[in-house]
TrEMBL record:
UniProt GO molecular function: CoA-transferase activity
Entry-linked InterPro entries: CoA-transferase_III_domain, CoA-Trfase_fam_III, CoA-Trfase_III_dom3_sf, CoA-Trfase_III_dom_1_sf
Species per Swiss-Prot/TrEMBL record: Steroidobacter agaridevorans
PANTHER family per record: SUCCINATE--HYDROXYMETHYLGLUTARATE COA-TRANSFERASE
Name of the molecule in the record: Formyl-CoA transferase
Superkingdom in the source lineage: Bacteria
Gene3D superfamilies: Crotonobetainyl-coa:carnitine coa-transferase, domain 1 (3.40.50.10540), formyl-coa transferase, domain 3 (3.30.1540.10)
Keywords for the protein's UniProt record, in alphabetical order: Transferase
Length: 401
């Protein structure tokens, strides 16, 4: 197909999306970004819970807009037998199903993996939940802050000596948007070999454990829990926020080579070989002296002056940007990370663009997040082949909306 009609590498892949709020929708969003056709099944009345999360513009929630671009909305009442039958018919025509109910809910609806794989053995079924399908906590509800706390991630976030604080990004939920697609894409490859789909069990708590990275290994090595360090690194010094005359700047030193560059950039080359600071370990042991040494210089300069000199000496650094400034900076503009699309109610709106690029092939502009039930008739007609009269009957009996 021509580039103008190329949806992405997953073009032709169909996804049945039984998710709501954030973890599941983020996973389905990743597949939509990659070109899959995602059918978001929503309950009648309010739809996805996040459609009710303020603030609003023309009764449209900012939250819903953030993780549902490129999807199609179909409203089906899964509490009715006819609604479940419709969902099964759609699952029979899909490659992937994603759900983020508590374990066991879809089984009780008749839409669990065993029931649907009997209809469609090629179906890849991804179940995302707070604690996974096994273990003593499997039936407990979870939210982002709960997962941050139980994974240990919250315990290392905050200023040194202060109370731990929640991460600003809802990583406890968003990790489902990372691990879910990884598992799905692996299973999609496996299916190309075996011809069969499989069940994928994604636990958000497991995902947060995986995100601990070197902090977990540090605890294993030392037998001690890492503590909050603010913007600083537990082992690398200097690494963190430093004051400027008109704000703050991040400076990060990963190796001794960077230490020499920092010293030269800030006009203090004599400290490159100072025996108190000339190794990673010595700088760690003398953290407060190193930080004050750098701060003495940085607080006399503006952020832009520091940026200029740190760029010149190739020192890893960054001004601390607000969201609006971050999304309008030249790098974001060059990468087209904010684009405009046409929303059914709001008209032309800005949205964050797909984060993965495919050089040589241009995907079309992402479709705006759908209004509730926007594609119900389209999917019933074009996918299931229902007549207008049959669709009207389903609507009159409140099976669809």
């Amino acid at each position: 197909m021509s580039a103008a009609h190329w949806a992405g590498p997953l073009q032709g892949v169909r996804v049945l999306d039984f998710t709501r709020v954030l973890a599941g929708p983020a996973a389905a969003l990743a597949l939509a970004d990659l070109g899959a056709e995602v059918w978001k099944v929503e309950p009648p009345g309010t739809g996805d819970d996040t459609r009710l999360f303020p603030p609003f513009r023309e009764d449209v929630s900012h939250y819903f807009l953030s993780v549902n671009r490129g999807k199609k909305s179909i409203v089906i009442d899964l509490k009715t037998e006819a609604g479940v039958a419709l969902a099964k018919d759609l699952a029979a025509r899909c490659d992937i199903l994603i759900e983020n109910y508590r374990p066991g809910v879809t089984d009780r609806l008749g839409l669990g993996y065993e029931a649907l794989s009997a209809i469609n053995p090629r179906l890849i079924y991804c179940a995302i939940s707070g604690f996974g399908m096994t273990g003593p906590l499997r039936d407990r509800p979870s939210f982002d802050i709960v997962l941050q706390a139980m994974s240990g991630a919250l315990s290392v976030n905050g200023e040194a000596g202060g109370a731990p604080t929640k991460l600003g990004l809802p990583l406890g939920d968003l990790v489902g948007g990372v691990n879910g697609p990884i598992g799905i894409l692996a299973a999609l490859y496996e299916r190309s070999v075996t011809g069969r789909g499989r069940l994928i069990d994604v636990s958000l708590l497991d995902g947060m454990f995986g995100m601990l990275g070197y902090l977990a290994q540090l605890a294993f090595f030392t037998g001690k829990d890492p503590q909050p360090q603010g913007s600083q690194h537990p082992n690398l010094v200097p690494y963190g926020t430093f004051p400027a005359r008109d704000g703050s700047i991040i400076i990060a030193c990963l190796t001794n080579g960077f230490w020499a560059r920092i010293c030269n950039a800030l006009g203090m080359p004599e400290f490159t070989s100072d025996p108190r600071f000339d190794t990673l370990e010595r700088r760690h042991d003398n953290r407060s002296e190193v930080n004050e040494l750098i701060a003495t210089v940085t607080r006399t300069k503006t952020v832009q002056e520091l940026v200029d000199v740190l760029v010149e000496h190739e020192v890893p650094h960054a001004p601390i940007l607000g969201i609006q400034e971050a999304l309008s900076q030249p790098q974001a503009v060059a990468r087209q990370m904010v684009v405009e699309t046409d929303h059914e109610v709001l008209g032309r709106i800005p949205i964050v663009n797909r984060p993965i690029k495919f050089p040589g092939d241009d995907q079309p502009m992402p479709a705006a997040p759908p209004v509730l039930g926007q594609h119900t008739d389209e999917i019933l007609r074009d996918v299931l082949g229902l007549t207008p009269e049959q669709i009207d009957q389903l609507r009159n009996t409140k099976v669809v909306a």
